[in-house]
Write a structure and sequence with these properties.
Layout (H helix, E strand, L loop, with lengths): L5 E7 L2 E8 L7 E2 L4 H5 L19 E4 L4 E4 L2 E2 H7 L2 H10 L5 H12 L8 H6 L7 H15 L9 H26 L13 H10 L10 H13 L7 H11 L4 H12 L7 H12 L5 H9 L20 H17 L5 H15 L1 H5 L6 H12 L6 H21 L41
Antiparallel strand pairs: 1-2, 2-3, 4-5, 5-6
Helix pairs in contact: 3-18, 6-7, 6-11, 7-8, 7-18, 8-9, 9-14, 9-17, 9-18, 10-11, 10-18, 11-18, 12-15, 12-17, 14-17
Bound molecules: carboxymethyl coenzyme *A (CMC).
Amino acid sequence: MTDAKRTATLNIEGKELELPIYSPSAGPDVLDITKLYAQGKVFTYDPGFTSTASCDSTITFIDGGEGKLQYRGYSIEDLAEKSHYLEVCYLLLYGDLPSKEQQTEFEDRITGHTLLHDQMQHLFRGFRRDAHPMSIMCGVVGALSAFYHDSTDITDINQRELASIRMIAKIPTIAAHAYKYSIGQPFVCPRNDLDYASNFLRMCFAVPTEKYEVNPVLAKAMDRIFTLHADHEQNASTSTVRLAGSSGANPFACIAAGIACLWGPAHGGANEAALQMLHEIGTVDRIPEFVARAKDKNDPFRLMGFGHRVYKNFDPRAKVMKESADEVLELLGIEDNETLKVAKELERIALEDEYFIEKKLYPNVDFYSGIILSAMGFPTSMFTPVFALSRTVGWISQWKEMITDPKLKIGRPRQLYTGAVDRVYTDVENRLPTEKYLKFNGGS
Ligand code: CMC
């Protein structure tokens, strides 16, 4: 961050406060309000953090108006076309693209850590068979801190490094095991002669009784899905990882917190919700009914896979993902599928509809990723785990950046309190029944 060369003046009932203005290397200027409470005795109010920069960062830049996404200054389009996921991981973690030697060494380090501690098998088996793979991932990733004690000391740079490598290496194994467990098939061990994406596909789809050949087009599409989801600056799950980490929690616990946040349908859960919605719509003739519901202010229904907090023009990831979707569907010869017809028609209608144009609601990355993953053979419940796998490098890079930031403080937002104050406690015998108590017949 550069030193403030300009200030903004805030007048609070006649008292003037000078707020420093910082200029980033790209993006809007920011007002420094850190001394606002001390000097002005007021808080700022910004539910959903729509106007709040929570940290300095050098990792990812988004220009929502222009539909721009860059990792460490490189455009997502270039990286998706010319790079591959593990190179992108190196870039996000260390700031620059690796030399040939560095790339080989980094990839060897990752492949050397893909196995899980053998005792972790018991942990998987403790879950119900019908558990959602995301619930298994939350639990198992959190539990890594119980298995890898030598990488939980956040004050030790070597331990932080080891934790980062372990997270990136083990997360595909964890996601694939969660899937295998849910369908009652034996776990497939990682194979270190395969690239990252091929290895994941094999761990998900191979069975011990048959030979499994990884299809290179599917492996390329998988790698692209990983690359496009690798980081996305201070989104909800990344901010969750940072907030958890700001207390000094170990990295595995922080990533588990990020996975929990990602699960929600407004965030990473949208790819699962989008495909479920396409199935619910079922046939092209029912689309107008759902579009009308999405526009109805009294109906909470939203078109899943449409809209974005930051991208108000188009989602650059969606453009690349659409190309991949076309390639994969052509390869697999499933262009004629009913769900796909619904998806294509919905995309067309929404892009031409006044409501969606006016509100700048475009198909986002999750609209297309669900279509590809489904074509590859993943059930909808695995869509968000694939997103979590891809985003792990982003979370760990942002966590590492935060830990070494000299300005690090525990995250502690304030509030606009609107509740009761100074009530007098009465004994239970003298109280009337409260209307707010919700009676329900819950499960066991
Ligand atoms: N369908 C119908 N209307 C919508 C939609 C939608 N998908 N998204 C936003 N709107 C409307 C919303 O009702 C509101 O209307 P009004 O101004 O009349 O009240 C207006 O557009 C602005 O919506 P908002 O909720 O204030 O916008 P936001 O920036 O807070 O929300 C969002 C962004 C992604 C949560 C939202 O667009 C949404 O719920 N989309 C569906 C879920 C989805 O696809 N999420 C994946 C995001 S991409 C993956 C990721 O990065 O996590």
